[in-house]
From TrEMBL:
Transmembrane segments: none annotated. It holds the Pfam family GH3. Keywords: Ligase. This is GH3 middle domain-containing protein.
Length: 349
């Protein structure tokens, strides 16, 4: 499909893959093939993301009920979009989603609202955005129902910065001001419109941080956001190394909830058991996200392999692929490689 997608990027508006012209392209992370690639992004992509988040929120609310109208402290960032040679908008899938009507609609339909305005999310300056995420998250501390980021490392990285920022944040909370480190006019205006002096809250946050410093910031999240029900993020795969640090910040009792399973190309499954620890999470495939097929993988021992030398790295095993089967024929205990065909006509595995 690459030649067709490249033609779209170069400005071909004929219906190469879909009936309607594709006007937006997402950039993949590059983790699968070692390079970034363009993936068509349509209104269906945003609607599927909205469906995913609503479905996941419904299951989370059964286990961890949240108050209607509560706040979400989200460490989310929209990157700069750019134009391809053919004038097609390109950027990350999250950037497209945060700028879509569905992002606002998700907040309205789940009745949970992010602390930060779009000016903060799309500032283009990570540190300035993160500072403002914290300031607004602390300003709304009693109303924050959960803390989230797209990936677990996003929360860990932000909380590491907090340890440098907290004194300035307390000063801003006390006086209703914004640190000189925030230089972007759009952010300054939008944030100052949302906060006001709160000496009592600032004093409380300061005392909590002084205690946290003594304990190496253990339990930082529940200490500063005492009404938070859980921490929510993608915690599987390459995010697993960040779990220990995230557990440190979450303390003894605040649950870590693994977010949904997906790729740049399509969402795949939803975590329908939020009470499962991230290490044991299972995802339920939602067949309406894409058309899914599953290639059975059968372990095959390589002849002549020295087990004593290679066993610890799995070097003595290879996998033979079987014929693809539909979701209805998937067997418990069998290992598969997922193949999906999106509604924009793309085929990925």
């Amino acid at each position: 499909l690459d030649p067709f997608i490249q033609r779209i990027a170069d400005g071909d508006t004929s219906p190469l893959l879909t009936k309607q012209p594709i006007t937006t392209l997402s950039l993949s992370s590059g983790t699968t093939e070692g390079r970034q690639k363009y993936v068509p992004y349509t209104s269906h992509s945003s609607k599927t993301t909205l469906q995913t988040f609503k479905l996941a929120a419904a299951y989370r609310s059964r286990v961890y009920p949240t108050k209607e109208g509560g706040k979400i402290l989200e460490f989310i960032y929209g990157s700069k979009q750019f134009k391809t040679k053919g004038g097609v908008s390109a950027g990350t899938a999250t950037t497209h989603y945060f700028s879509s009507p569905e992002f606002k609609l998700k907040q309205q339909q789940t009745n949970s609202f992010t602390c930060s305005p779009l000016e903060v999310i799309f500032s283009g300056d990570y540190k300035q955005s993160t500072y403002c995420h914290f300031l607004l998250g602390l300003f709304h501390s009693p109303q924050v129902e959960f803390i989230t980021s797209t990936f677990a490392y996003g929360i860990v990285q932000a909380l590491a910065l907090f340890q440098d920022y907290w004194r300035e944040l307390c000063n801003d909370l006390f006086h209703g001001t914004l640190s000189p480190r925030i230089t972007l006019p759009g952010i300054r205006t939008s944030v100052l419109d949302l906060i006001k002096p709160n000496p009592r809250l600032a004093t409380w946050v300061s005392s909590q941080c002084e205690e946290l410093e003594e304990s190496n910031w253990y339990g930082l999240i529940p200490k500063l956001w005492p009404n938070a029900k859980y921490v929510y993020s993608i915690m599987t795969g390459s995010m697993q190394p960040y779990l220990e640090k995230l557990k440190h910040y979450a303390g003894d009792h605040l649950p870590l909830v693994s977010a949904e399973y997906g790729a740049t190309e399509s969402w795949i499954g939803v975590n329908m058991d939020p009470s499962s620890v991230p290490e044991n999470v299972r995802f339920t495939v939602v067949p309406t996200f894409s058309y899914f097929e599953f290639i059975p993988l059968h372990r095959h021992h390589l002849e002549g392999c020295d087990m004593d030398v290679e066993a610890h790295v799995g070097g003595c095993d290879d996998y033979l692929e079987g014929d693809p089967v539909p979701l209805s024929e998937v067997k418990i205990g069998q290992q598969y490689e997922i193949v999906l065909t999106t509604f924009t006509g793309n085929f990925f595995n």
